[in-house]
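--- STAGE predict ---
source: upstream dedup step, 1 unique chain passed
mode: sequence only
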Amino acid sequence: MRKLILLPCLVLLSSCSTTSTVKQLQSDYNKHKYSSYVSDNLKAHPAIAPEKLSTDDKKLKVFKRQLTSRKSQAGGRLNGVINQNGLYKPSRALQQQLARLGTKKKSELWLKNHSSLNAVITLALKNNLDIKSSKEQAQASLAKYDQVAYLDDMLSQYAAFTKDIKLTGSTQKHKKLVSANFPFPGLLSLKSSIIDQSVEASRLALKQTVQDVITNTKIAYYQLQFAQQEIAITGQNIRLLKSLKEELQSNYSTNTAELNGILQVDIEIANNRNKLQIIKDRKRAKQARLSAFLNLSPEFTLGKLDKLKAEKLSDNVERLIKTGKTHRVEIARLQTDLEKMKRIIQLSEKRFYPDFDAGYSRFQNDKFTTRPKIKKSNFFAKNDAYLTETREKYKALQSKIKALQNRTADDIQQEISNYHTQKRTRALYRNKVLPKAKTTLDIAKNLYETGESSYVEVINAQEMILNYRLKSIRALMGMNIGKAKLLRLTGRY
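--- STAGE serialize ---
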């Protein structure tokens, strides 16, 4: 008897408990303040028929084929970075020659006889270890496409396994479909878009490495060219001093010159020989650095270098600045990060904010079936705070891009100014200073021969010519280095 009385009571309590739960959920739902994202998307979603699973399977297969195509296209863009780097277009003939060399020793032997700047840069693109490492990292990023594809397979397998399974209850209204748990094409499309941006970032990182190697190789080569010229001029000065010493010794034997003059020339010869050794040591250091770029032996030395020639520069400052803001690789990388962050925000909104109900609920209530229901597993305040932080970072990144564009414009103007300063300096020494210095030397020699001047004036005049020639060549090197740095800033040749 007690059992018969107890049973209706339990049913009544259960019903009250269910009613209380529904009321509590409804109350919590009505009190909750959604973000702007949820408010903008707040609308009822119709129920999805189970038959739609087969359609989703087809969509997933199509999406997987699209991912495979995008992966192939991204791989093609990665492989083209080295030849289409924006700063230097390698000769196909040179590339074919270098490809046949094989070993490092053969490359060194070949480079001894082909030490042009183009040959050196082309070999750097082939051998440089930083480029190889960056390329391997970029290739590794392509595997992210397969991660999305495997997720597609997992969802298809899950759908096939659960398609005909009936869970507890007289209806399957409590059962969410795969497409409700993993919205298609929303989450997968956003994830694949993020991967597109990740792969593009890897491609730009490779491009930046290639451009850095090209620029540093050029600078090292120009410095070697200057050292080669410096060695030649210093050696020429030593020979002239030796000739002067022989003349003084001859005059000393006939009592027309003093011993002190011969000793002074000996001192100058010794100083120039020491200077020559310092220049050679400095050249070896520059050569070792260039060998590191080329991945050759540290003791390797190039053969005959190209003659140092002036690199011409466009005078259109506005165009150069516009090009730099558009094509500088660091700016492009930040813009890619910005686009990636935008997709991440969209993906986070879909994952963190409550799913919109597909029309299935254990608690059939008019209000619940016409409005989205709260997904109880989410802690909205925390997720809203996370997304607020991410959006602020997004704005900060936008400001960072703008700041880098402004700094790029400033750097370009500085390099242009430096280039023209070096150009004017070179023109000054070549066209005005050196001709007058040579005239001064001729006058000093004539005065010395007639006994109206001493050997000191001759030595001083010769030293001035040496210094002025070196300053002219150093200015030429500065022009070329400035042009290389400017190209790096603009990202285009």
